[in-house]
Fold each of these.
Amino acid sequence: MELVCPAGNLPSLKAAVDNGANAVYMGFKDDTNARHFAGLNFDDKRAQEGIRYARDRGVKVFVAINTYPQPSGWERWQRSVDHAADLGVDALILADIGVMDYACHRWPDLRLHLSVQGSATNAEAINFYHQNFGIKRVVLPRVLSLKQVKQVAESSPVPIEVFGFGSLCVMVEGRCILSSYVTGRSPNTFGACSPANAVSWNETPDGLETRLNNILIDRHAEGESAGYPTLCKGRFNVSGNTYYAIEEPTSLNTLELLPELQSVGVAAIKIEGRQRSPAYVAQVTKVWRDAIDLCTKNPEGYQAQADWMEALAKVSEGSQTTLGAYHRPWQ
Amino acid sequence: MNKQNQTPSRPKLSLGPLLYYWSRDDVFKFYESIADSAVDIVYLGETVCSKRRLLKPDSWLQIAGLLKEAGKEVVLSTLTLLEANSELSALRKICSNEDYMVEANDMTAVQLMSGKQSFVTGPAVNIYNSRTLEVLARSGLKRWVLPVELSKETLTDMHQNRPMGVETEVFAFGRLPLAYSARCFTARAHNLPKDDCQYRCLDYADGLMLKTREDESFLVLNGIQTQSSKTQNLIHEIEELIDLEIDVLRISPQSRNTMQVIDIFDKTLRGKISSDEAEKSLQRYIMSGECDGYWHGQAGMDSANVDQPITNKQQGCT
């Protein structure tokens, strides 16, 4: 199984490479990728440097161009595809049908992966992208149970990549526009959810309030830690109860499931977190490298080790982890 | 398409798929009344949750027959998020039916019909640019619903290169579908696992209201789907929608007064009432405020039409 790690910037890329990633994925400095955050991503010079660093150490580089262009911005996406092709990257991670159509005609030899943002949950959906654009791999949405992942792996025309660790979108990626409903900008259109320019933090007599374009996302009493106000992770009121009505701040961690993911034929494990620090990338990559190596050598004897789980829990959002949809009751 | 010298024709009216879970009786009564309404096109079927099985496929087909007899164009709508193999099997049956056009709500359905038959795409299929529209037109796309987060600017741009024969439909009235999840938020609100949800959606004919901690209506939980609490209402944009050569305006079903809403849209399209009059008449049928921000390129919850008395309690939110 290939370990695919996040590279939000050059230090993170190096951390991933140095700690055992088989591939890293990055984005350019604009809305063509789904982590369009200030201070993140690669300009031309840094991209070249990063690619060289990875290549010299036998590590592949993927570029995510996985948002959905509208006509007014189309050329930017087209330019990004050309740029990545010129840089000689190993694969593009794409979501939009139009962008894929462009990429496969303009750069027929360039390897294409279907992004999680493309939301393909079964072999028929994958067939569409395979038959029309010759995709070589699909990243599955984080909505399927282990049994369902197995069914897709068995019937998919191309190898599958799944998320192993990181922040968890409770909504189906590529099909959630809560963020643009509140702020005008969504992951699909802008490459960011609950964008920072719409966020405000206000200390009030009732506690620290976090707002998104003036909508109250949560209110934190003294001593409660206040996370970033991603709007699905706030506390709201339903039928008189105030609770995390959509999702608690938590991270996906599938370390325990590794032998099963391997046996159902998963080709690659993806680590989420291009927006996280190089220290996070180093820590998570190292643990997953060890785990995959152990699991490959001895799948029957494999067990998630306590120190791995501890190390991952430390860098998890909300300091708690879940098996997510892989574990049926979560679904 | 080049229609420069023609007066744009009047858009048809459609009724979108029923997004909520109602009793069998209520569903039948609802569509019996729709048979007598002014809508031209009716989208039928369960698009949100495969556990909602009070109406079996045969019952939907029975309703389809009734509507067809009443002169409606019937389109069968498919599930938006497919997970289990059983859902895929059910989808295959719908896509291979020989009597009705099908609305694909995900790429699975698109693939099943590609190159074989014409199809419609619903608002959850991401068609954000002309090249995507072109690819799907080659696959058999006959009509597409503009994804709800896109603006009139984007639509205008896309109409510059609209493939010949492809119709455009716009979500004109109703609570906006905003997100889908593997998890069920209605079950979660009742502390129930999704596998044992006890069909709680049946208790919420227009979804379950989610408010902020300062008691502001915000979203509506509808099983695995999340909607806006506000109703998107484009009645004020009717002239513009006609000028943009929109072929179909979609009204999304709600538990009460859908007939009245259809009637107001129909009268406006026929020029019997002005859009101002229509806006006023519609107010009493709008639940928890209205919005049209997406259409104007703003946050979806915004309303460009702020002067309207949308919070007037006398006019009663239902």
Amino acid sequence: MSKYSIAVIGDQASVMGFKALGLDVHVAEDTEDARKALHDLAHGDAAVIYITERFARDMAQDIARYKDCVTPAVILIPGKEGSLGIGMRNLENSVMRAVGADIL
Amino acid sequence: MPNTVINPTRMELTRLKGRLRTARRGHKLLKDKRDELMRQFLDVVRENKALRTRVEKGLERANQSFTVAAALMSQPAMEEALLYPKQTVELEMDFQNIMSVDVPRYTFQTSSPEAGDLYPYGYAATSGELDAAVEALGEVFRDMLALAQMEKTAQLLAEEIEKTRRRVNGLEYKIIPECEEGIRYISMKLDENERSATVRLMKVKDMILQQAQEERRAKGL
């Protein structure tokens, strides 16, 4: 058992509130910022990284890199513009990958 | 076997038979593993889907409250209010073994000065909407952590299932048929050799008999 941190990456308005919960918040202005933050955190002690779907949309490859590693878990959350359905689609993709058909 | 040359010898036959036995056993075990992984995976995925829907709804609600709060307060004031968090969150992680796949299990601990005192600001300078927003976020956070655990589990299981499925298929459609064909080829070849040896012996026996008869005939004359 060791200690890890929980990080949130997103734009100012979407992630501001998480700061009050005591999470490790990284405000990103653009995709490049978010990408850098993601890789930095992944090599640090973050076990769970929440990232808003708006950034995740443009960095699918960077996120896929951590998919098969135990840490970190990169989890998509809807930002202030609401759910874009990317997180749900990723879930369906993993079902496709395992079963070979979409059964949900 | 089209590409490889096998020696039609008894030793090779024994070797191939052993290989086939191992392959069959491995195939059965891996198939069982795949089925069980699949069962677990489907449970996880269903739960995962429900959780995700709940988290997305909760976050949407929290974001709405934040938007209202942002409309009532100035941006700097709001940032200032949220700047220094009162509580800290520490995450502990251990592993659970599902069919030899290590999946993470998270437990988190919040350390706040007083229980239920989440708000890192005084109430005088902030609007009530901000309290509601922070509270909504705090409520959804527990689900978010469960979601992280579920989603990672689903991803790791999916990878393992894919790997196992490939192995099962490889054994079923490639290794086992190849072994069977090799065994058939060798045993045919060995049988054929045996028949040709018998025929040769019969032929030799005939020849010897003929010679003996001719010799006897020559002596008799």
